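Hi L.,

As promised, Peptide chain release factor 2:
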Amino acid sequence: MLWICRPSNTDSRPFGGIFDIAGKEARLAELEQQINDPHLWNDPAHARKVSQESARLRRVVEGFKRLESDLQGLLELWPELMAEEREQMQPELERAGRELEDLYHQTLLSFPYAENAAIVTIKPGAGGTEACDWAQMLYRMYTRFAERHGFTLELIDLEPGAEAGIDYAQFIVRGENAFGLMSPEAGVHRLVRPSPFNAQGKRQTSFAAVEVMPEVDESVDIQIAPEDLRIDVMRSQGKGGQGVNTTDSAVRIVHLPTGIIVKCQVTRSQQKNKEMAMNILRSKLFEIEYKKKQEELARLKGEARPIEWGSQIRSYVLDKQYIKDHRTGEMRHDPENVLDGDLESLIWAGLEWKAGRRETVAAAEDE
């Protein structure tokens, strides 16, 4: 929780600082001019973005001003209060602290497409069967995280491992600021544990890569020529159920100019699978174009690294009961809770790092 303290004499506003309220108010004024333009809705997609940004900024500005007024009153009154009266005010201070922290979190979710759904891909790396099992553990972790936040998780593709775990998983997380919250998870995740696949319980290190990108819809101008696509239909693989793997409903789309391959096989409807695959392809092509235009894509998807030792963003060391994020230095000593979806502290630390509010820490030595 953020600490609430009396501002220094050099502060131009009592609690302004990192919230940049003046900048947000200036941006709000610009957006108001656009909203008042009768021609704005000639472009519905742009109009929606303007309205959404305006509403988000207004919530932050109005919430900050209300909280600022409340806290300023409390600080002015505090010296005159008796000890018993101060004790009675403690719940109010704690409430204000929670509201201030929530406003601070909103400033960490102000980057492009933070409000979009997140397309997440998990791939096992070095480690064989161990890595496939680790990839499945990550898939469960993100499933539980989505459940904790009331998000929905829409499975796109899931390929079982040869002996255990999964060889590939791709899914969409939908909910408020889903991409913003999931974005710090992009990178290589390292697991260290006594192996359940070894009779001697030998200590094993495994790796899996997590990719995260924002979902984009047809309102984003991504030109895909029909002649640039090869679309194959096939019978779904895996456990199936309810007829999924008894019909030729799986769809694989190859974008010939880039070589991008997208597959979807999770519904009985070939048309639905095709629509979902096209949406994934559109998002991938958008990401490529965005990368050409803006270097900051590295902050959106995370730096691409080999799925092996030395490239991990986070280590999960189960026999020593800790998890460490190597970018932020954030430590947790309850790995069972983290693997059950309790990721909040790691995610907020990651967002601070992405926003440049945390220094990158040195990579960990081998445990």
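Residues 79 and 130 are 60 Å apart (CA to CA).

Thanks again for sending the construct details.

K.
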